[in-house]
């Protein structure tokens, strides 16, 4: 069923209205006779949420036992621990990603960008698993796959050709990782990443955890290559922690270049690190959007497949208190997420894909801070979940 009339709903917390869905899209005009109708009873209507940076393949969310986390403090500890754990347990990325994707859908997320590990111990096994999940979720949820060299490219001979294979088998985006701090040869690493992007005609999304001047240097190299290859609008920097711990003048100079080149920022807004703040990014014209990063995996026990929760955490980290500011936090998991990831037809305007979420809240700000249960989730005009339970 891709035809539907939602009666008495309040789009984005505004005045009550009826919303018509025809052919899986939001439509204008009179509802045809006999169309399936849902009484919204004045509930708040939101567009389907966008998860802009997660790792569907890594999660232990679906497993019966709690994963006891004993990982060391450095990023390299987390990388090594995970690789060993994956080899030891034979972690099934297909089952993990499917469970996580379904949990996201039940909570209203209809679009996901997932980084997926590619390395010399797992090969392209995780990408194959998430490709199966994408197939299983087709029509219900859009999943973008980033071929992500979690263990680095340079230190492990053969990773570049595995990335090449992952892109050939259907990964959408070329990933990268800390060109200085992990790879220790930023020019070589970024030339491989952008070379793969050029060969495959695919966008780039690079994990950049590097702090301060080191991260700013890597970012400059990313911007140089974006310009040289005319990849405007096709590059995302994930985390970009460095933008939170350089001077405002240095930050603003980098943001101005990012705006000019259409380079977006994916943020998880962690409490534990300096972060690029939402307000100066938006003021500079840079698209900044939200994601959980990993959820209940060997990196972190935290995270949840609930993008209203992520919007709240972005709001808290950015000290967003006013209702109009909290709307910006929500935008990070909505319009900005769709724009940053390149998901077309997002929103509540006529012609948009009918991905819709109905919640009991008096305002958008209340929906973010209270994270009420999802009364109804619609994807492409089909009802896919009621009261947090999948029906499709
Ligand atoms: Zn990540």
Automatic annotation (TrEMBL):
It comes from the Bacteria. CDD domains: Bact_CD. Pfam families: Amidohydro_3. Coiled coil: none annotated. Residues 37-385 form the Amidohydrolase domain. PANTHER family: BLL3847 PROTEIN (PTHR32027:SF9), CYTOSINE DEAMINASE (PTHR32027). This is Amidohydrolase family protein.
